[in-house]
Amino acid sequence: MNKLLRNIFVFLVILVFIVAFSPSYTSLNIDNLAYVVALGIDVGENEDFNISFQFTTGSSSSDSGSSEKSPLIINSVEASSIDSAINLMNSYLAKKINLSHCRLLIFSEEVASKGIADAVYTLANDSQIRHSANIIVSKNTAKDYMENSTPILENLITKYYEIFPNTSKYTGYIYNVTFADFLNQYLCNTCEPFAILGGVNKNTTTLDNASQSTNVATMKSTNTPFSGDRGAENLGIAVFKDDKLVGELTAIETLCLSILRGDTDSFLINVPDPTDPERQLDIKIFNEGHKKIKVDILNGFPYIRFEAKFTGRVYSMKEHAHYLDQNILDAISQEANRYLENILTQYLYRTSTEFQSDISGFGKYALSHFLTAQDFEAYDWQNNYVNSTFKVTIDTQIQSGFLINET
Protein backbone atom coordinates (compact mmCIF):
# COMPACT_ATOMS: atom_id res chain seq x y z
CA MET A 1 0.00 0.00 0.00
CA ASN A 2 2.83 2.38 0.87
CA LYS A 3 4.54 1.53 -2.42
CA LEU A 4 1.33 2.31 -4.33
CA LEU A 5 0.96 5.69 -2.60
CA ARG A 6 4.62 6.48 -3.29
CA ASN A 7 4.17 5.68 -6.98
CA ILE A 8 1.04 7.87 -7.17
CA PHE A 9 2.90 10.73 -5.49
CA VAL A 10 5.85 10.46 -7.93
CA PHE A 11 3.42 10.34 -10.86
CA LEU A 12 1.65 13.52 -9.65
CA VAL A 13 4.96 15.35 -9.17
CA ILE A 14 6.07 14.44 -12.71
CA LEU A 15 2.69 15.50 -14.08
CA VAL A 16 2.92 18.90 -12.35
CA PHE A 17 6.40 19.53 -13.80
CA ILE A 18 5.26 18.54 -17.28
CA VAL A 19 2.31 20.94 -17.15
CA ALA A 20 4.34 23.78 -15.58
CA PHE A 21 7.27 23.73 -17.99
CA SER A 22 5.67 22.62 -21.22
CA PRO A 23 5.18 25.45 -23.78
CA SER A 24 1.71 26.89 -24.04
CA TYR A 25 0.32 27.69 -27.45
CA THR A 26 -2.73 29.62 -26.37
CA SER A 27 -3.44 33.12 -27.66
CA LEU A 28 -1.95 34.52 -24.42
CA ASN A 29 1.46 32.97 -25.04
CA ILE A 30 4.19 35.62 -25.22
CA ASP A 31 5.14 34.39 -28.70
CA ASN A 32 1.64 35.23 -29.90
CA LEU A 33 1.58 38.78 -28.51
CA ALA A 34 2.76 42.04 -30.13
CA TYR A 35 3.73 44.62 -27.50
CA VAL A 36 3.02 48.25 -28.38
CA VAL A 37 5.37 50.91 -26.93
CA ALA A 38 3.60 53.94 -28.44
CA LEU A 39 0.16 54.53 -29.92
CA GLY A 40 -0.39 57.37 -32.39
CA ILE A 41 -3.77 58.78 -33.41
CA ASP A 42 -4.10 60.82 -36.61
CA VAL A 43 -6.97 61.86 -38.85
CA GLY A 44 -7.55 59.32 -41.63
CA GLU A 45 -8.13 60.03 -45.30
CA ASN A 46 -10.89 57.47 -45.86
CA GLU A 47 -11.80 56.68 -42.25
CA ASP A 48 -12.12 58.74 -39.07
CA PHE A 49 -8.69 57.75 -37.78
CA ASN A 50 -5.28 56.61 -38.89
CA ILE A 51 -3.89 54.64 -35.95
CA SER A 52 -0.14 53.96 -35.75
CA PHE A 53 1.40 51.26 -33.57
CA GLN A 54 5.06 51.37 -32.60
CA PHE A 55 6.75 48.12 -31.66
CA THR A 56 10.28 47.28 -30.69
CA THR A 57 12.07 43.96 -31.01
CA GLY A 58 15.00 42.85 -28.89
CA SER A 59 18.43 42.87 -30.52
CA SER A 60 20.56 39.81 -29.91
CA SER A 61 23.71 41.89 -30.08
CA SER A 62 22.52 44.17 -27.30
CA ASP A 63 22.50 41.24 -24.93
CA SER A 64 26.24 40.82 -25.42
CA GLY A 65 27.03 44.42 -24.59
CA SER A 66 26.83 45.85 -28.11
CA SER A 67 25.78 49.47 -28.55
CA GLU A 68 23.52 48.56 -31.47
CA LYS A 69 20.06 50.02 -31.03
CA SER A 70 16.96 47.87 -31.01
CA PRO A 71 15.09 48.11 -34.30
CA LEU A 72 11.80 50.04 -34.41
CA ILE A 73 8.69 48.93 -36.25
CA ILE A 74 5.77 51.26 -37.00
CA ASN A 75 2.60 50.00 -38.67
CA SER A 76 -0.53 52.03 -39.38
CA VAL A 77 -4.11 51.30 -40.32
CA GLU A 78 -7.16 53.45 -41.05
CA ALA A 79 -10.27 52.61 -39.09
CA SER A 80 -13.44 54.13 -37.68
CA SER A 81 -12.27 53.67 -34.08
CA ILE A 82 -9.26 52.67 -31.99
CA ASP A 83 -10.75 49.26 -31.19
CA SER A 84 -11.40 48.58 -34.87
CA ALA A 85 -7.82 49.52 -35.68
CA ILE A 86 -6.51 47.12 -33.03
CA ASN A 87 -8.68 44.33 -34.41
CA LEU A 88 -7.45 44.95 -37.95
CA MET A 89 -3.83 45.09 -36.83
CA ASN A 90 -4.25 41.76 -35.03
CA SER A 91 -5.09 40.22 -38.39
CA TYR A 92 -2.25 41.99 -40.23
CA LEU A 93 0.43 40.99 -37.71
CA ALA A 94 -0.94 37.51 -37.10
CA LYS A 95 -0.40 38.34 -33.43
CA LYS A 96 -2.56 39.79 -30.69
CA ILE A 97 -1.91 43.46 -29.87
CA ASN A 98 -0.98 44.05 -26.22
CA LEU A 99 -0.98 47.59 -24.80
CA SER A 100 0.29 46.84 -21.31
CA HIS A 101 3.76 48.25 -22.15
CA CYS A 102 2.54 51.32 -24.06
CA ARG A 103 4.39 54.38 -22.71
CA LEU A 104 3.15 57.14 -25.03
CA LEU A 105 -0.32 58.08 -26.27
CA ILE A 106 0.18 60.57 -29.09
CA PHE A 107 -2.57 62.71 -30.63
CA SER A 108 -1.93 64.86 -33.66
CA GLU A 109 -2.77 68.54 -33.40
CA GLU A 110 -5.54 68.05 -35.94
CA VAL A 111 -7.20 65.30 -33.90
CA ALA A 112 -6.83 67.23 -30.63
CA SER A 113 -8.43 70.35 -32.13
CA LYS A 114 -11.56 68.36 -33.00
CA GLY A 115 -11.90 66.83 -29.53
CA ILE A 116 -10.52 63.64 -28.01
CA ALA A 117 -13.13 62.73 -25.39
CA ASP A 118 -14.26 59.54 -27.17
CA ALA A 119 -10.67 58.37 -27.66
CA VAL A 120 -9.79 59.10 -24.02
CA TYR A 121 -12.82 57.18 -22.72
CA THR A 122 -12.02 54.27 -25.05
CA LEU A 123 -8.43 54.09 -23.81
CA ALA A 124 -9.52 54.48 -20.17
CA ASN A 125 -11.86 51.53 -20.66
CA ASP A 126 -8.95 49.33 -21.77
CA SER A 127 -7.50 47.52 -18.76
CA GLN A 128 -4.14 47.15 -20.54
CA ILE A 129 -3.49 50.90 -20.78
CA ARG A 130 -1.23 52.08 -17.98
CA HIS A 131 -2.35 55.26 -16.27
CA SER A 132 1.34 56.19 -16.05
CA ALA A 133 1.65 56.41 -19.85
CA ASN A 134 2.39 59.95 -21.00
CA ILE A 135 0.00 61.83 -23.24
CA ILE A 136 1.41 64.01 -26.03
CA VAL A 137 -0.08 66.35 -28.61
CA SER A 138 2.14 66.48 -31.68
CA LYS A 139 2.25 69.54 -33.91
CA ASN A 140 3.00 67.11 -36.74
CA THR A 141 1.27 63.81 -37.32
CA ALA A 142 1.58 61.26 -34.57
CA LYS A 143 3.21 58.85 -37.01
CA ASP A 144 5.77 61.46 -38.02
CA TYR A 145 6.57 62.05 -34.35
CA MET A 146 7.14 58.34 -33.72
CA GLU A 147 9.29 57.90 -36.82
CA ASN A 148 11.57 60.70 -35.62
CA SER A 149 11.73 59.62 -31.96
CA THR A 150 15.07 57.88 -32.33
CA PRO A 151 16.85 57.59 -28.98
CA ILE A 152 20.28 59.24 -28.92
CA LEU A 153 21.81 58.22 -25.59
CA GLU A 154 19.73 55.08 -25.07
CA ASN A 155 19.65 51.80 -26.96
CA LEU A 156 16.00 51.17 -26.17
CA ILE A 157 13.21 53.49 -27.26
CA THR A 158 11.22 52.37 -24.21
CA LYS A 159 13.94 53.69 -21.93
CA TYR A 160 13.93 57.07 -23.71
CA TYR A 161 10.14 57.28 -23.46
CA GLU A 162 10.41 56.50 -19.76
CA ILE A 163 13.02 59.10 -18.80
CA PHE A 164 12.42 62.19 -20.97
CA PRO A 165 9.43 63.48 -18.91
CA ASN A 166 11.66 63.57 -15.82
CA THR A 167 13.44 66.67 -17.15
CA SER A 168 10.43 68.60 -15.88
CA LYS A 169 11.89 68.40 -12.37
CA TYR A 170 15.05 70.38 -13.19
CA THR A 171 14.07 72.54 -16.18
CA GLY A 172 10.31 73.14 -15.97
CA TYR A 173 10.19 73.45 -19.77
CA ILE A 174 7.97 70.38 -20.12
CA TYR A 175 5.47 68.86 -17.72
CA ASN A 176 5.25 65.17 -16.87
CA VAL A 177 1.61 64.67 -17.89
CA THR A 178 0.31 61.13 -17.56
CA PHE A 179 -2.86 59.66 -19.00
CA ALA A 180 -4.29 59.51 -15.45
CA ASP A 181 -3.51 63.22 -14.95
CA PHE A 182 -5.26 64.17 -18.18
CA LEU A 183 -8.31 62.03 -17.45
CA ASN A 184 -8.68 63.40 -13.90
CA GLN A 185 -8.33 66.99 -15.09
CA TYR A 186 -10.90 66.42 -17.82
CA LEU A 187 -13.43 64.93 -15.41
CA CYS A 188 -13.01 67.48 -12.59
CA ASN A 189 -14.93 70.76 -12.50
CA THR A 190 -12.19 72.80 -10.80
CA CYS A 191 -9.54 72.64 -13.55
CA GLU A 192 -8.90 71.95 -17.22
CA PRO A 193 -6.66 69.32 -18.88
CA PHE A 194 -3.34 69.77 -20.64
CA ALA A 195 -0.77 67.53 -22.34
CA ILE A 196 2.90 67.51 -23.33
CA LEU A 197 3.54 69.46 -26.54
CA GLY A 198 5.65 67.48 -29.00
CA GLY A 199 6.65 67.81 -32.60
CA VAL A 200 9.31 67.28 -35.24
CA ASN A 201 11.91 69.95 -35.88
CA LYS A 202 12.48 69.90 -39.63
CA ASN A 203 15.41 72.32 -39.35
CA THR A 204 17.59 70.46 -36.87
CA THR A 205 20.69 70.85 -39.01
CA THR A 206 20.51 74.62 -39.60
CA LEU A 207 20.63 76.80 -36.53
CA ASP A 208 20.49 80.04 -38.51
CA ASN A 209 16.98 79.40 -39.81
CA ALA A 210 14.73 82.36 -39.01
CA SER A 211 11.92 80.08 -37.83
CA GLN A 212 14.00 78.72 -34.97
CA SER A 213 13.68 80.55 -31.68
CA THR A 214 16.57 80.99 -29.27
CA ASN A 215 14.40 82.80 -26.72
CA VAL A 216 12.71 80.59 -24.12
CA ALA A 217 9.87 83.13 -23.97
CA THR A 218 8.81 82.04 -27.48
CA MET A 219 10.43 78.60 -27.72
CA LYS A 220 8.25 75.50 -28.05
CA SER A 221 8.26 72.24 -29.99
CA THR A 222 9.11 72.70 -33.71
CA ASN A 223 10.39 76.22 -32.92
CA THR A 224 13.71 75.53 -31.19
CA PRO A 225 17.45 75.88 -31.85
CA PHE A 226 18.16 72.18 -31.29
CA SER A 227 20.52 70.38 -33.64
CA GLY A 228 20.99 66.64 -33.46
CA ASP A 229 20.19 63.20 -34.79
CA ARG A 230 16.70 63.06 -33.29
CA GLY A 231 14.04 65.15 -34.99
CA ALA A 232 11.29 64.66 -32.41
CA GLU A 233 11.30 67.05 -29.47
CA ASN A 234 9.14 67.80 -26.44
CA LEU A 235 8.92 71.38 -25.26
CA GLY A 236 5.90 73.27 -24.01
CA ILE A 237 2.31 72.39 -23.14
CA ALA A 238 -0.82 71.76 -25.20
CA VAL A 239 -3.73 73.58 -23.51
CA PHE A 240 -7.26 72.12 -23.62
CA LYS A 241 -10.68 73.55 -22.97
CA ASP A 242 -12.84 70.54 -22.16
CA ASP A 243 -11.56 67.95 -24.64
CA LYS A 244 -10.46 70.34 -27.39
CA LEU A 245 -7.01 71.82 -27.99
CA VAL A 246 -7.20 75.61 -27.68
CA GLY A 247 -3.58 76.76 -27.48
CA GLU A 248 0.06 76.12 -26.67
CA LEU A 249 2.43 77.25 -23.94
CA THR A 250 6.03 78.19 -24.64
CA ALA A 251 8.92 76.85 -22.59
CA ILE A 252 8.88 79.78 -20.15
CA GLU A 253 5.07 79.61 -19.80
CA THR A 254 5.36 75.89 -19.06
CA LEU A 255 7.84 76.81 -16.33
CA CYS A 256 5.19 79.14 -14.89
CA LEU A 257 2.69 76.27 -14.83
CA SER A 258 5.27 74.10 -13.03
CA ILE A 259 5.95 76.85 -10.47
CA LEU A 260 2.25 77.41 -9.74
CA ARG A 261 1.56 73.70 -9.34
CA GLY A 262 4.76 73.16 -7.33
CA ASP A 263 6.04 70.42 -9.63
CA THR A 264 9.59 71.56 -10.34
CA ASP A 265 12.50 71.26 -7.93
CA SER A 266 14.77 73.83 -9.56
CA PHE A 267 15.00 75.98 -12.68
CA LEU A 268 17.27 78.48 -14.40
CA ILE A 269 16.38 82.12 -15.14
CA ASN A 270 18.25 85.04 -16.70
CA VAL A 271 18.15 88.48 -15.07
CA PRO A 272 20.08 91.71 -15.71
CA ASP A 273 23.35 92.06 -13.82
CA PRO A 274 22.91 95.08 -11.49
CA THR A 275 26.62 95.86 -11.89
CA ASP A 276 26.42 95.66 -15.70
CA PRO A 277 22.90 96.18 -17.17
CA GLU A 278 24.00 94.99 -20.62
CA ARG A 279 24.93 91.59 -19.21
CA GLN A 280 22.58 88.77 -18.18
CA LEU A 281 23.15 86.60 -15.11
CA ASP A 282 22.18 82.94 -14.96
CA ILE A 283 20.43 82.30 -11.66
CA LYS A 284 19.58 78.82 -10.41
CA ILE A 285 16.32 79.00 -8.45
CA PHE A 286 15.36 76.34 -5.92
CA ASN A 287 11.80 75.57 -4.91
CA GLU A 288 11.67 75.43 -1.13
CA GLY A 289 8.00 74.48 -1.05
CA HIS A 290 6.87 77.84 0.34
CA LYS A 291 3.89 78.85 -1.78
CA LYS A 292 0.46 80.21 -0.98
CA ILE A 293 -2.58 80.39 -3.23
CA LYS A 294 -5.74 82.21 -2.17
CA VAL A 295 -8.88 82.70 -4.24
CA ASP A 296 -11.57 85.20 -3.27
CA ILE A 297 -14.83 86.02 -5.03
CA LEU A 298 -15.19 89.80 -5.18
CA ASN A 299 -18.39 91.19 -6.72
CA GLY A 300 -18.90 87.82 -8.36
CA PHE A 301 -15.43 87.72 -9.97
CA PRO A 302 -12.39 85.61 -8.97
CA TYR A 303 -9.48 87.44 -7.34
CA ILE A 304 -6.46 85.12 -7.25
CA ARG A 305 -3.32 85.74 -5.21
CA PHE A 306 -0.13 83.73 -5.49
CA GLU A 307 2.81 84.09 -3.12
CA ALA A 308 6.04 82.06 -3.18
CA LYS A 309 9.48 82.10 -1.62
CA PHE A 310 12.59 80.80 -3.37
CA THR A 311 16.29 80.61 -2.80
CA GLY A 312 18.83 81.01 -5.59
CA ARG A 313 22.48 80.95 -6.48
CA VAL A 314 24.46 82.89 -9.04
CA TYR A 315 25.70 80.57 -11.78
CA SER A 316 27.21 83.15 -14.15
CA MET A 317 30.70 84.35 -13.29
CA LYS A 318 32.80 87.18 -14.62
CA GLU A 319 36.12 88.76 -13.75
CA HIS A 320 36.16 91.21 -10.82
CA ALA A 321 32.73 90.04 -9.62
CA HIS A 322 31.92 90.50 -5.93
CA TYR A 323 29.15 88.07 -5.13
CA LEU A 324 29.80 88.26 -1.39
CA ASP A 325 28.62 91.86 -1.33
CA GLN A 326 25.18 91.76 0.29
CA ASN A 327 24.05 94.90 -1.55
CA ILE A 328 24.78 93.24 -4.88
CA LEU A 329 23.01 90.05 -3.83
CA ASP A 330 19.97 92.06 -2.69
CA ALA A 331 19.88 93.84 -6.04
CA ILE A 332 20.01 90.49 -7.88
CA SER A 333 17.21 89.20 -5.65
CA GLN A 334 15.03 92.17 -6.62
CA GLU A 335 15.72 91.55 -10.31
CA ALA A 336 14.75 87.89 -9.86
CA ASN A 337 11.54 88.91 -8.06
CA ARG A 338 10.56 91.32 -10.82
CA TYR A 339 11.30 88.78 -13.53
CA LEU A 340 9.31 85.97 -11.91
CA GLU A 341 6.36 88.20 -11.03
CA ASN A 342 6.25 89.48 -14.60
CA ILE A 343 6.32 86.11 -16.39
CA LEU A 344 3.84 84.55 -13.95
CA THR A 345 1.38 87.44 -14.31
CA GLN A 346 1.61 87.32 -18.11
CA TYR A 347 1.05 83.56 -18.06
CA LEU A 348 -1.99 83.85 -15.79
CA TYR A 349 -3.75 86.46 -17.91
CA ARG A 350 -2.99 84.51 -21.07
CA THR A 351 -4.58 81.33 -19.70
CA SER A 352 -7.62 83.24 -18.44
CA THR A 353 -8.33 85.67 -21.28
CA GLU A 354 -6.90 83.95 -24.37
CA PHE A 355 -7.37 80.25 -23.55
CA GLN A 356 -10.13 80.65 -20.93
CA SER A 357 -8.77 77.47 -19.40
CA ASP A 358 -7.85 76.98 -15.74
CA ILE A 359 -5.01 74.50 -16.28
CA SER A 360 -3.36 75.77 -13.07
CA GLY A 361 -6.22 74.29 -11.02
CA PHE A 362 -7.25 77.40 -9.08
CA GLY A 363 -10.84 76.18 -8.94
CA LYS A 364 -10.19 73.94 -5.94
CA TYR A 365 -9.08 76.99 -3.93
CA ALA A 366 -12.42 78.65 -4.64
CA LEU A 367 -14.54 75.80 -3.27
CA SER A 368 -14.53 77.19 0.27
CA HIS A 369 -16.67 80.15 -0.87
CA PHE A 370 -19.60 77.88 -1.76
CA LEU A 371 -21.80 76.03 0.72
CA THR A 372 -22.61 73.08 -1.56
CA ALA A 373 -21.26 71.42 -4.70
CA GLN A 374 -24.44 72.54 -6.46
CA ASP A 375 -23.66 76.18 -5.63
CA PHE A 376 -20.18 75.79 -7.11
CA GLU A 377 -21.56 74.17 -10.26
CA ALA A 378 -24.10 76.98 -10.60
CA TYR A 379 -21.27 79.54 -10.39
CA ASP A 380 -19.72 77.82 -13.44
CA TRP A 381 -16.06 78.27 -12.49
CA GLN A 382 -14.67 76.98 -15.77
CA ASN A 383 -16.36 79.78 -17.70
CA ASN A 384 -15.98 82.42 -14.97
CA TYR A 385 -12.20 81.97 -14.89
CA VAL A 386 -12.00 84.40 -17.81
CA ASN A 387 -13.04 87.20 -15.41
CA SER A 388 -10.18 86.61 -12.96
CA THR A 389 -7.71 89.20 -11.75
CA PHE A 390 -4.34 88.22 -10.31
CA LYS A 391 -1.74 89.41 -7.86
CA VAL A 392 1.67 87.68 -7.80
CA THR A 393 4.20 88.24 -5.00
CA ILE A 394 7.63 86.58 -5.12
CA ASP A 395 10.34 86.65 -2.45
CA THR A 396 13.69 85.34 -3.69
CA GLN A 397 16.83 85.19 -1.58
CA ILE A 398 19.89 84.99 -3.82
CA GLN A 399 23.10 83.63 -2.39
CA SER A 400 26.60 83.69 -3.84
CA GLY A 401 27.87 81.12 -6.34
CA PHE A 402 28.51 77.51 -5.39
CA LEU A 403 32.27 77.37 -5.79
CA ILE A 404 33.53 80.85 -6.66
CA ASN A 405 32.34 83.62 -4.38
CA GLU A 406 34.58 86.38 -5.65
CA THR A 407 36.87 86.92 -8.66
Task: Give the helix/strand layout.
Layout: H1 2-21, E1 33-43, E2 49-56, H2 60-63, E3 72-79, H3 82-93, E4 96-98, E5 104-108, H4 109-114, H5 117-124, E6 134-138, H6 142-147, H7 157-163, H8 179-187, E7 194-200, E8 232-241, E9 244-249, H9 251-261, E10 266-273, E11 276-298, E12 301-314, H10 326-355, H11 363-366, H12 373-379, H13 381-384, E13 389-399
Parallel strand pairs: 1-4, 1-5, 5-6, 6-7, 12-13
Antiparallel strand pairs: 1-2, 2-3, 7-8, 8-9, 10-11, 11-12
Structure in words:
The model is unreliable at 59-67 and 204-211 (pLDDT under 50). By secondary structure, this protein is of the alpha/beta class. The protein is built from 13 helices and 13 strands. The chain folds into two domains: 28-60 and 70-260, no CATH class; 265-407, GMP Synthetase, Chain A, domain 3, CATH 3.30.300.210. It has helices spanning 2-21, 60-63, 82-93, 109-114, 117-124, 142-147, 157-163, 179-187, 251-261, 326-355, 363-366, 373-379, 381-384; strands spanning 33-43, 49-56, 72-79, 96-98, 104-108, 134-138, 194-200, 232-241, 244-249, 266-273, 276-298, 301-314, 389-399. The longest helix is centred in the C-terminal third of the chain and has 30 residues, at 326-355. Strands 1, 2, 3, 4, 5, 6, 7, 8 and 9 form a nine-stranded mixed β-sheet that branches.
Q: Write the element-wise H/E pattern from the N-terminal end onward.
A: HEEHEHEEHHEHHHEEEHEEEHHHHE
Mean pLDDT metric: 86
Kindly, what is the distance between the CA atoms of the first and last residues, rounded to a whole number of angstroms?
A: 95 Å
Number of helices: 13
Number of strands: 13
What low-confidence regions span 5 or more consecutive residues with pLDDT below 50?
59-67, 204-211
Largest sheet: 9 strands, mixed
From the alpha-carbon coordinates, what is the Rg to the nearest angstrom? Answer: 26 Å
Helix-and-strand structural type: alpha/beta
Shape: globular
The number of distinct structural domains comes to 2
Helical content stands at 25-40%
Strand content: 25-35%
